[in-house]
From TrEMBL:
Subcellular location: Membrane
Signal peptide: none
Organism: Fusarium oxysporum (Fusarium vascular wilt)
Protein name: Protein alcS
Lineage: Eukaryota, Fungi, Dikarya, Ascomycota, Pezizomycotina
GO CC annotations on file: plasma membrane
Length: 202
């Protein structure tokens, strides 16, 4: 509910833009809050990997949403006009600083990608694609910080396109788990991979 619309917004479909600021409520509640609660639930069940993943991405959506809210001062701190926080969105320092956050997310996804080899094909593919997604988006902001708007736009669309593919994989995973939860007679396979790499205890 967050990744799909954000990817379409970053692609600029139907004139959408503004880094998806119109959906900031979605980022906080359908992204941040639900993922955080899901992470806590997985932690209670003893499922460490999904618990960490859900909580981390819940934190990501909270952080992204907060960046877009003027009251948090994320971009206002870079504004040369104290009476106009939005001017900070034009400053190269803001773009470069935010890019490092996205780059760190790419590094985190590398760790999740390696761990996902012991889970299933869908998780494996999702984290594999999230790495270039965050790298492209980070690169887009770095180019913006240097005034290379053309390259920035290209990288943004490439990253958004990969993110859209990630969202389709996430929808597939979600549908599979929902069908499984109601004992539906037909289940979408996730492609279990636990035996691909033997565990340390084995």
């Amino acid at each position: 509910m967050c990744t799909t619309p954000l990817s379409m917004i970053l692609l600029g479909w139907e004139g959408a833009g503004g880094l998806g600021a119109a959906n900031v409520g979605t980022y906080f509640y359908l992204g941040g809050l639900l993922l955080l609660l899901g992470g806590v639930g997985e932690w209670i069940l003893g499922n460490t990997f999904p618990a960490v993943v859900f909580c981390q991405f819940g934190g990501f959506w909270f952080a992204y949403g907060a960046t877009l809210v003027p009251g948090y001062g994320a971009y206002g701190a870079y504004s040369v006009d104290a009476n106009n926080p939005a001017e900070g969105l034009k400053e190269s320092a803001f773009f470069a600083t935010f890019a490092f956050f996205l780059f760190a997310m790419a590094l985190l996804c590398v760790v999740f990608f390696v761990a996902s080899i012991r889970t299933n094909v869908l998780f494996f593919l999702i984290f594999l694609l999230l790495i270039p997604t965050f790298c492209c988006l980070a690169g887009s902001f770095f180019h913006l910080s240097h005034g290379n708007t053309g390259s920035a736009a290209t990288l943004q669309k490439v990253g958004a396109g990969i993110l859209l593919a990630v969202s389709f994989l996430a929808w597939y995973t979600f549908t599979s788990l929902i069908l499984l939860s109601v004992d539906f007679p037909y289940v979408l396979p996730l492609g279990d991979l636990p035996n691909l790499v033997k565990g340390a205890k084995k």
